[in-house]
Amino acid sequence: MSTDLTKAQQTGGNSVGEAEIAPDSPGQPVVIGERRGMFGATKGQDTTGYGGLRVPIEFPGASARPYGGWFDACIDALEAGLEARGTAYAEAVPMVVVDRGELTIHVAREHLLVVARTLRDDAPLRFEMCMGVSGVHYPELAGAELHAVYHFLSVTNGSKRIRVEVSCPDADPHIPSIVETYPANTWHERETWDMFGIIFDGHPALTRILMPDDWPGHPQRKDYPLGGVPVEYKGATVPPADERRAFN
Amino acid sequence: MAADTTRSADHGAAYATSGADEDVDATTMHVSGGDWDDLVDEATALHEERIVVNMGPQHPSTHGVLRLILELDGETVTETRAGIGYLHTGIEKNMEFRTWVQGVTFCTRMDYLTPMFQETAYCLAIEKLLGVTDDIPQRASDIRVLMMELTRVSSHLVCIGTGGMEMGATTVMTVGFRERERIFRIIEEITGLRMNNAYIRPGGVAQDVEQKAIDLIREMVPEIRRGIRELELLVNEAPIVKGRMVDVGILDLTGCMALGITGPVLRSAGLPHDLRKATPYCGYETYDFEVITRDTCDAYGRLRIRLDEMYQSLRIIEQATDRIEASMGQPVMVADKKIAWPAQLKVGSDGMGNSKEHIKEIMGDSMEALIHHFKLVTEGFRVPPGQVYVAVESAKGELGCHLVSDGGTRPYRAHFRDPSFNNLQATSLMCEGGQVADVIVAVASIDPVMGGVDR
Known about the structure:
The structure holds 2 protein chains of 2 kinds.
Chain A: H1 2-11, E1 30-36, E2 54-59, H2 71-84, H3 89-92, E3 95-99, E4 102-106, H4 112-121, E5 129-137, E6 146-154, E7 160-168, E8 174-176, H5 185-196, E9 199-201, E10 231-233, E11 236-238
Parallel strand pairs in A: 4-7, 8-9
Antiparallel strand pairs in A: 1-2, 3-4, 5-6, 6-7, 10-11
Chain B: H1 2-11, H2 36-46, E1 50-55, E2 67-73, E3 76-83, H3 91-95, H4 103-107, H5 115-130, H6 138-166, H7 170-191, E4 200-201, E5 204-205, H8 211-235, H9 239-245, H10 253-258, H11 264-267, H12 275-278, H13 299-326, E6 345-348, E7 351-354, H14 356-365, H15 367-378, E8 386-394, E9 397-405, E10 413-417, H16 419-423, H17 427-431, H18 436-446, H19 450-454
Antiparallel strand pairs in B: 1-2, 2-3, 4-5, 6-7, 8-9, 9-10
Helix pairs in contact in B: 5-6, 6-7, 6-13, 6-18, 7-8, 8-13, 13-18, 14-15
């Protein structure tokens, strides 16, 4: 498995032409939830016994230095840039994950603005384009249920990419808006608010963008049902997709 | 109204958005029925030149259901807002309830003019999550390149064709669609479908390219090239086209960078940024082609870029066709039987389906093969937990696919960064200060497709 991953990292689309990236050096994996049962045997009459299975879902954990390739230089530059702006690196960046040849920088939400500015303005970083924000909802991750995932591209430094991940609790779904630094994010943040209910503080006009203005709820959250009606076909009834048997 | 109040009370402040009719102090006039003269009298009494016009969502020249809210001072546009969401179909949410392979059928329907790009981005992302990027057969990658470039040409043809039609040049449209039909003939020959192909699958492609299709490509490419030349002769120096497009829809490099604009719009500002060269995938680094740029920053420059890009795509198509012909008989699906789609599809007398040999094997010879087929088709394969972001250069710009897996048989989250969605943000910057007629040209030069914008 580790050789497979190394191979994948070296050829990963975003690190082409770069020096070799070190194999994973993962710390403790992050448990984002629990997988229950197997073959869909979670509800109803479970005669298999598989319904009792409990398996933690483990995401790649924090990586240790060296991260490999240009990642170390990138993190060094970020560290220097943050210190120069009077922000403690360790406080702003609680975790760095290198997985599948991609660099993920987890950022504390109160420091997102200064991180964004550093990423854009510092010459060794110069991530001049933000490719938008995508939300992810982890209902079982207490205190960090909602994640906003940003992807940055540096055309100047050879089309390098990094990912910045910010989390906020469901009870207080606020993340500062980076529209001031990256105007491209205007619509992307509106979409993430619309779909996940993350409130981007400081956004010039945070209104719904895809759903109607008066729509209740945020459709892409995991607790929001998919909906649908059963379909009758040749005498049999096909249930809607979220009520069909699922292979969990 | 009563229903509205209860609904907002139920859901608290987090969901509260202001209603459409609240806090409007300005005089509102609704043009619906009644006497036009009364309305004109009323407007004259107000002594105001400023009017707000809703262009769309059902306007023939707004590319599908795009709604533009224009604030006009006479003929001058003072403010533009784009309203989207009329074609939101919840594709991303739906993909969370289908297996990884079934997801291809959904994402192909996002931007319906560039189905192959969504499929490729999605499949490359799955392959990266699985760690099998290196195991994809060369022939499969070549076929992907061929299909993507065919799609790029057909997308550009529609862009130029409908863009011409919106300016009143119907011939541009008929030429564009005529050439697109040729591409559809090739794509139909290879995949069995004209659009929404679901042809590129995790691990490779759904079925092999046969000699018949290669012959058809060789027959069609010169004709398509001739058609593009005809388009060029028709529009390049046409005084009306130049009058409508030169110096219209200006967006310089600074604006492009700030707004995350990619694709032909970015290249019209002079930056040779093309992911096929910058971060090659599917073996693009082995193909011989050029990145086209211009420095005019306007709609005319984008038109010319698209025309020139089609020639470059045809060059790639010819190279890919040679390679596919040379590698005839090699696999088009990853060797790992736990990922590869079990069936080999063939076109029979009753349409496309599993090949006779495959049916014979699973029904007659090997029960294990039948179980394997059944498991892989109904349950699907598992993907190790983690997240990836893969971007490809679609006809419209950077198409990114952010996939999160929780180790299950379905995506935990699938997000597509559609280039049209992002680029459409530039509408106001391109249109404000111009004339109403320029809005049409500017929007057409972005080439938005609402299926991709709203997903």
